[in-house]
Structures are given as C-alpha cells and as structure tokens.
Amino acid sequence: MAHSTTDARGATAPEPEAAAPRTAPGSTKRTGRARRAKAPDGVPLRHRLRRDRAVLLMVLPALLLLVVFHYVPLIGNVVAFQDYDPYIADNAFRAISQSPWVGFEHFRHMAEDRLFWQAVRNTLAIFLIQLTLFFPVPILLALFLHSFVRPRVRAVAQAILYLPHFFSWVLVITVFQQMFGGAGLVAQVLRDHGHDGFDLMTDPAFFKFLITFELIWKDAGWGVIVFLAALSAISSDLYEAAAMDGAGRWRRMWHIQLPALRPVLALLLVLQVGNALTVGFEQILLQRTAVGPSTSEVLDTYVWNVGLDNGNFSYAAAVGIVKGIFGLVLVLAANKVAHLMGEQGVYKK
C-alpha cells in the first residue's frame, strides 16, 4: 500500500514504494548448488581439497595399501562358490573363469567338519582368556605410571615396557623357551634345589594361558601409549578441585581418570571384539607342533592348513568368508552395546 506525502502547496503525492530486490534468472539454482558444495563449516569442497592437499598426500600411500591388500583381494572370494583349480589355466583370472561352480557345497561341508568346529572352540576360548587377562593390563599400567611415577621415570619405564613390541614372535617364543622350557632357567633352578622340573612350552593344558602371557609381555606396553595419551588430556583443574575437596590419589583415579578413559575403552573393546576370531596366527603357528592341533588349532591356522598345505583354496575361502561375516556381526553388536552405555564406539548412531 502506497503512503502519501504533503508538499509545500498542500498537495499530496504518493510516496514511491520500496523497490523489491531483483533476482537474476537462475541465481536460486546457483545458490543451491553453492550450498550443496559447501561443507558444514562453510568452506567449499575444492577449497578444502586445496587446503588439505598435504594431509591427503600423506594419507594416500596408506589408502593405496588398504585398497590393494584388503579390497582388491575380495574379488577372489568368488572361488568359495567354485571348485577352484589354479592349474587349469596359465593365470589366476582365467583359472577363476574356467573353474566349475559348486554353489554352497563348501559351506555345507564346513558345517559338518569336526575340525572346523574344534578350531572355532579353540579360537573363542583363547579370545575370552585374552580379553580377561590381557585387556586390563595396559589400563592398569597406564594408571600406575600416570599417578604414581615421576615424569622422568615414567618416560624410561614406558620405553622399557613397549620395547618388546618391536621383537618378532620368533624371538619372543625363544625367550619364553629359555625361561620356561624343559631345559629353561626356571626348570634348572628347581632341579638344583631338589624339585622336579617342568616344561610349560609343551603342556597342552597350559597352552592358552601361555600364549596370553606371551602377548602381555610383548604388546601390553605398546597399549599403554593410547591410555597415557587419554590421561594426559585431562584438565589439571579437575585434579586441583578434587584435591581441594580432600580426594586422594585413589579417589581421583576412580572419579576422574577412569571416566576419562571410558570413550577410549569403549572404542578399543569394540575393535577387540571384532578381532575375536583372529588370535595370533604367527604366534600359534610357531608353537602348534609342540602341543598338537587339538589344543592349538584356531581358525587362521585351520585356513592355512586346508588352503595352502592341502591346496583346497575354495574351502579355505569359504571359511574366510564365514569368519569375516561373524566378525562384522560382532563389531555391530559390540558397537550397539557401546551406544547403550552412552559411548560413541566406532561410529555414531
């Protein structure tokens, strides 16, 4: 509606209306495309690529390794549904294309294979033992180093603890053999004092605990790094406030440090559950003959034996597919539990 104004002669003249802003044809579409191209922080994708090109170049080799060694081999899983013969042609691709199809025959054979289920039982038993005995050790070590050890001593102790991580499994098993074998140091000391010696390295009943203790000695110190990093991120104001309220070291550990470790614990626990069917292939393969396959056969060594030793590549691929599916289900289930506990886990809801 136009408003009127009065001039010097008393006449009224209509006041011009405010002109509406002009919109060029197609500008709405361009604005929509610009919004879609921008990230939540308002930076366009091409600008982000230019800004982060150094980081992307650093990640590129790891990404290529992931694609080449994890995603490309997935194409070979097709042999699980074939009677694959690698010698039927002069290269692997022709051998896959010329091998006859058998459908789910290998999966039916797997369900009836007693050795397969024996390997599953051994794998799950070793996983539960390692989850119970190994998983808490890095947490306890990190809490002890962060709360009770001086910074200089902590650096030396941390270096000593994670040094075995760089040892090969051959060296680790050799050290344990020299300590706890039939001719090891402990057995010799017992014999020198009139007691019977023992050989833990060839005891089938102790084998699952033996490989767990080997894993603790080798990798517990390396896991301390993750938890120490999480503890170092805690604000010093929380410690000062707790100290002013009269909280001692143990109460500060219970009410400040452990809650700060919950997100990291949830993430690592989900990843640990996802690896439930993957327990130390090289470690167990090196000690398998000492205790026998009935005690030491796990899924990874079972796949090695039927696939490479016996040449049954199709059946080994079928076992690998089943293992991967169950691993995915375990990760999703563990992540769901993490969400119910109020933690993020591997991914958000």
Give an overview in words.
The chain is mostly helical and about 350 residues long. The protein has 17 helices and two strands. It has helices at about 25-35, 45-50, 55-70, 90-100, 105-110, 115-135, 135-150, 150-160, 170-180, 185-190, 205-230, 235-245, 250-275, 280-290, 295, 300-310, 315-340; strands at about 5, 10-15. Strands 1-2 form a two-stranded antiparallel sheet. A hairpin with a 5-residue loop joins strand 1 and strand 2 (about 10-15). It is globular, with a radius of gyration of 32 Å. The model is unreliable at about 1-15, about 15-20 and about 25-35 (pLDDT under 50).
In short:
The chain is mainly α.
List the topology elements.
Elements: E1 4-6, E2 12-14, H1 27-37, H2 45-51, H3 53-71, H4 92-98, H5 105-111, H6 114-133, H7 136-148, H8 151-162, H9 169-180, H10 185-192, H11 207-232, H12 236-244, H13 249-274, H14 281-291, H15 293-296, H16 299-309, H17 313-340
Antiparallel strand pairs: 1-2
